[in-house]
UniProtKB/TrEMBL annotation:
Pfam family, one: STAS
UniProt source species: Microbispora catharanthi
Residue ranges of every copy of the STAS domain listed in the record: 3-111
UniProt similarity note: Belongs to the anti-sigma-factor antagonist family.
Transmembrane segments: none
Source organism, top-level taxon: Bacteria
Entry protein name: Anti-sigma factor antagonist
Length: 111
């Protein structure tokens, strides 16, 4: 399965809706969107991941890329993370760097 990714930027927040598998083949697509968000000088990155069925180490590297490129103090939020994807994030310790939450807030519904 491929990765589908769509981004919406509004008031300093980039919201990216992802569906499919986030692996070595699809990670460059997400990194490109993250770069676009950084260029737009967002302070918050919301990833809607409820439809992400698999995340490899390449997906974790995307999160690390976002953490490194976004301004200091910027927030990275993963919304609707499936248990198997959340476990991958927890095993790497990256759950201490991102916020994982169950549901969407106001701007996330627009992506």
């Amino acid at each position: 399965m491929t990765l589908d990714a769509k981004m919406h930027i509004d008031e300093g927040t980039a919201t990216i809706r992802l569906s499919g598998e986030l692996d070595g083949r699809s990670a460059p697509r997400l990194n490109l969107l993250i770069s676009d968000a950084v260029a737009a000088q967002v302070r918050r990155l919301v990833l809607l991941v409820s439809d992400v069925t698999y995340m490899s180490s390449a997906g974790i590297r995307c999160l690390l890329f976002a953490h490194q490129k976004l301004p200091r103090g910027a927030e990275i939020v993963l919304v609707g993370t499936r248990q198997e994807v959340a476990e991958t994030i927890r095993m790497t310790g990256f759950d201490r760097t991102v916020v994982m939450q169950e549901s969407v807030e106001r701007e996330s519904a627009e992506a």
